[in-house]
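Risk register update: the risk of archive-format incompatibility is retired. Evidence:
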Amino acid sequence: MLKTKALTNRDYELIKSAEQVIEKNYRYGRHHIGAAVRTKSGTIFSAVHVEANVGRITVCGEAMAIGKAISEGDHEFETIVAVAHPHPHEEIEKCWVVAPCGMCRELISDYGKDTNVILSYHSELVKCNILELLPEKYTSDID
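Archived output:
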């Protein structure tokens, strides 16, 4: 069972940033995930995922947002979220929050073990520490 926390107004603002970036840049077959990360300085960086014809070289939205923050000199992360945009053939009207994939869980935890992740859990939006989603994380650290 995950140890979760309730969302704050700032968390809903972060979700809105992820929604806005994918609503602005959605392109079928290219970009359908938007992500936003809030750094400990309070700055929000948002980005879309970059899909490729060869799936294994696709870059997730979370990685793009983290890279954008780091490229701007902001290296300490507080909270991250990703949202999916509905495709034209889906009968869904708005974006929804999605959990990070396994590779993103590794990446997020590599860059901030105390980073919170917003996700849907038991049909409720909550946040939890990234390590809750990645127990027994691989690390080269010696305890």
